[in-house]
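Board notes, transcribed. Complex of a protein with zinc ion.
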Amino acid sequence: MKLTNKNYYSTKANKEYFSVSQIKDFLKCEAYAMAKINGDWVEPPNTAMLIGSYVDSYFEGTLEEFKANTPELFKKDGSLKSDFVKAEQIIKRIESDELFMLCMSGKKQVIMTGELFGEKFKIKMDSYLPGEAIVDLKVVKKLREVFFRQSGKISFIEKWGYDLQLAVYQEIVRQNTDKLLDCVIAGVDKQDIPDIDCILIPNDQLEFQRRELTWKMARIIDVKTKKVEPARCGVCDYCRATKKLTGLITPDKLVY
Ligand SMILES: [Zn+2]
């Protein structure tokens, strides 16, 4: 199957190829991941996703098309909802910064495929600067938000697995071009005065993410190829929507 911008997110493509978002779905809940791959569960777009798509489509040069196809952006009187007025402010802020614009000046939404752990993978890059860098644009709540893990403080990049995402992108680009490129998150946030930064992810962090994924992939491949039944997490949207009661529970189960 030849991937294009039209069929990239199709059920056929998702069955034939692995992607980073699929991996993240599997790590969250196997049953949910499989339902998405099979087209049995479609996630309704939320406001945060739409703001991201709004800014993405501006850089891709398809904002007018995106607006025409997304009635959720507008109020009844035809004006933009406040969330997307914010998206406009974010775009203005980015446009005024030379380095940010340089990072975003690559080829947009470039698709590549490759092989990892014996499986076919697909990637789609926000801004690809051949021979130089792979840049992914992220619109987040707050760039400098601090999250906690047992190992200590982490940023939004580790929290949401953006280092894992770029680790896979870096390897697939290497397979296609024989070059190991710098990986950058072009980050902007949704504060009243948006904060911006371009964050270079160290190669050893990317390497670590790829190595860690190795340990998780065997199980994910077994589930996707239907060798084993997907486990249900029991608490995600998909599990809640499809759960069948098998008996009464006691109150302690609610807080377990
Ligand atoms: Zn679940």
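The longest helix spans residues 203-224. The pocket of zinc ion is lined by residues 29, 31-32, 232-233, 236, 238-239 (CB under 6 Å).
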